[in-house]
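Marked as duplicate of an earlier ticket. Keeping the data here for the record.
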Amino acid sequence: MQYKRRRERKTNYKKRFALLKSKKTRIVVRKSNKNFRIQFINYKPDGDFILLSSMGSDLKNYGWDGSYSNTPSAYLAGFLAGKKAIKKGINEGILDIGLNSPRKGAKIFAALKGVVDAGVKIPYSEDIIPSDERLHGKHIDESLVSKVEEVKKKIEEEYG
């Protein structure tokens, strides 16, 4: 009989074990219908330890008034999480997308690009990242491009 979380399709233990063997901080990106969550997690034998967490809805503190589940907000949430990580002394990690499908240009990889742009070193391929037009919201609305840059600048001002 399989483990309970495997039966419920919540955990792929083979993939998780491969990530844990690297002994790097896992950068866990999860999406819901209305939000994004980016967490920096270290493994401990008695359970995972969350070092820091950031959500798409945290962007409202920086003037973001758009949706929290689109590609630009995923990028900005990743950028915010990356800046928090740099401030805490976390300089590298490995991406954990869980059971999400690794499709080229997916929103999860927009969050990855945000973390990388903040200064965290993560191994990845440029092929999977969404285009800059999508990251900055040009595909949604031309005025969104300036809003993304404005929010990004506010985050940089706060976290240096």
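See parent ticket for discussion. Residues 33 and 69 are 7 Å apart (CA to CA).
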